[in-house]
């Protein structure tokens, strides 16, 4: 017998413009003094500072705020660990670099563009229609939206900077062997939604999923392993990192609504500082000087205007996964640990 879909009702409730929903039950971490009994701020013992953080646009890890959700074991949120320059860097990467070929885009079926962002500005003016068409880009093992099956043939190199960022967050949470192998970058506009789904295509479902959000605020819904459970609603702001692990890894989740935010942390002047090339060793990136210069080139407000304009009415989410088991080097490599 089919179970009742209690997810749908809550999704419709938050999606609605008329009548407007009440946000009283939405879990918000904006004001820690107003935390409900549904959330706890966690204190991690023995945090060893990861000196890669600054180079990747992150604050020191001992300043990060980590929250857990009582009704959703395995679900965690790190409240915006990014600096203003860091937010600018990652937003720009998602717009200017990741949608370039050989990565895959939703618009490929209509027109194969080698460089979507450059095409948007080809005439000197911004082509807003083309800008709005981009809904997703996939990286690494490309998610196949029809079959939901990853294949070794449908794979391109995973961006080193995003692998390094994911590794810093993974290490902070105690995952020392996480490998970023696939990502979906989702682009939302003010009227976009993402319907209820689970992420279960990866061979490795033990590894956590890291979800980095930038731009306008989202209402994020998370329920249970089937749609009978009513989901909780959580406010996700620019810079927030959501981690879906253990029981939460396979739970239904969705985005029914994008809300205009009063804040634009990428423009927070007190927080906007250049980074310096120091003797920090990176794990995946060989050309550190290039990373430092591409981070710092976002410092100048005028350089960043095009990206700011896009983000005024958009949200970007980078969703990073490990596909393979630890002992596998490819999907056809069935060399599992001997038991
Ligand atoms: C996803 O589940 O793929 C994206 C979630 C989000 O945009 O926060």
Mind sketching the topology for me?
Elements: H1 6-15, E1 39-42, E2 65-69, E3 75-79, H2 84-97, E4 104-105, H3 116-120, H4 128-133, E5 136-140, H5 160-172, E6 182-189, E7 194-197, E8 209-215, E9 217-222, E10 232-236, E11 241-244, E12 253-259, H6 288-296, H7 305-311, E13 314-321
Antiparallel strand pairs: 1-2, 2-3, 3-11, 4-5, 5-6, 6-13, 7-12, 8-11, 8-13, 9-10, 9-12
The chain binds succinic acid.
Succinic acid (SIN) binds next to strand 6, strand 8, strand 9, strand 12 and strand 13.
Question: Could you characterize what this model shows?
Answer:
The chain is of the alpha+beta class and 339 residues long. It has one domain (24-321): Alpha-ketoglutarate-dependent dioxygenase AlkB-like (Jelly Rolls), CATH 2.60.120.590. Helices cover 19% and strands 21% of the residues. It has seven helices and 13 strands. The chain has helices at 6-15, 84-97, 116-120, 128-133, 160-172, 288-296, 305-311; strands spanning 39-42, 65-69, 75-79, 104-105, 136-140, 182-189, 194-197, 209-215, 217-222, 232-236, 241-244, 253-259, 314-321. The longest helix has 14 residues, at 84-97. It is globular, with a radius of gyration of 20 Å. The model has no long low-confidence stretch (mean pLDDT 94). The protein binds succinic acid. Succinic acid (SIN) is lined by residues 184, 186, 194, 211, 213, 218, 220, 236, 253, 255, 317, 319. The site of succinic acid has 12 residues, from β6, β8, β9, β12 and β13.
